[in-house]
């Protein structure tokens, strides 16, 4: 995600007192700063929270970046992914330090499956307004970005996000996964019912396949911007189950 304007009511960070480290992995077209409001809440509540800043050029590179952050965690890890970040945590989550996975409007591919295959799976809601690839990268149609990505977020912010898009590399979209951590570890999934980027039908298919603890929320794809407290509560519930 990208820069959030929602904050946690002036919350002050506290020392890390919880027995779980939380690693947050962002998705495509944006950067990790969109986790800011969620980060503020989680750190205030005593969690060690680490943020992955993925280039989103190749899946391999993003998995490597995530594994470096997992290695820096001082406690057992709850690995959280939004959107394309779900594919990243699916592969990186095989790390033995990762005890549980939490997907937020996220892709959860199987072994031998790519994000491209899931993103183009037929859905009654239709697909996202992506422009044709250019020089090996994809972006969302800037004119349609606000309504497709973050329809319940301040329009001024969504117009900025549309202009500040991080191009998504075909090297991240097309590779088939070689591991699927959700097969062996506890999974939670937050399904965004007003999502026009990852259709709710596809989200439900992935969550059901992963046997996830499913939570639904009336939200756009940018749920950490529009509902940061709900996202933080979802993450904390998942963290409470980490052993």
Automatic annotation (TrEMBL):
What name does UniProt use for this protein? Alpha/beta hydrolase
Q: Which PANTHER family match?
A: AB HYDROLASE-1 DOMAIN-CONTAINING PROTEIN-RELATED, ESTERASE_LIPASE_THIOESTERASE DOMAIN-CONTAINING PROTEIN
Source organism of this protein record: Caulobacter segnis
SUPFAM superfamilies from the entry? alpha/beta-Hydrolases (SSF53474)
Q: Where do the AB hydrolase-1 domain residues begin and end?
A: 22-233
Cited Gene3D superfamilies: alpha/beta hydrolase
- Tell me yes or no: is Transferase among this UniProt entry's keywords: no
Q: Which UniProt keywords apply?
A: Hydrolase
Provide any one GO MF term from the record.
Answer: hydrolase activity
Q: Does the keyword DNA repair apply?
A: no
């Amino acid at each position: 995600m990208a820069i959030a304007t929602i904050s946690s009511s002036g919350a002050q960070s506290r020392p890390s007192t919880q027995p779980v480290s939380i690693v947050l992995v962002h998705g495509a077209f944006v950067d990790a700063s969109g986790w800011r409001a969620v980060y503020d809440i989680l750190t205030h509540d005593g969690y060690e929270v680490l943020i992955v800043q993925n280039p989103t050029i190749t899946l391999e590179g993003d998995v490597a970046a995530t594994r470096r952050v997992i290695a820096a965690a001082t406690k057992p890890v709850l690995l959280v992914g939004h959107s394309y970040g779900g594919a990243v945590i699916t592969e990186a989550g095989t790390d033995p330090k990762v005890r549980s996975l939490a997907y937020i409007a996220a892709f959860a591919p199987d072994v031998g499956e790519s994000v491209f295959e899931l993103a183009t799976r037929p859905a009654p809601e239709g697909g996202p307004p992506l422009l044709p690839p250019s020089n090996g990268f994809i972006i969302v149609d800037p004119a349609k970005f606000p309504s497709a990505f973050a329809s319940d977020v301040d329009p001024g912010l969504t117009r900025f996000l549309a202009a500040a898009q991080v191009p998504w590399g075909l090297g991240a979209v097309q590779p088939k996964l070689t591991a699927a951590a959700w097969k062996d570890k506890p999974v939670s999934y937050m399904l965004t019912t007003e999502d026009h980027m990852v259709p709710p039908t596809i989200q439900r298919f992935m969550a059901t396949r992963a046997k996830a603890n499913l939570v639904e929320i009336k939200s756009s794809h940018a749920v950490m911007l529009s509902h940061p407290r709900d996202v933080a509560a979802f993450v904390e519930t998942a963290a409470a189950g980490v052993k």
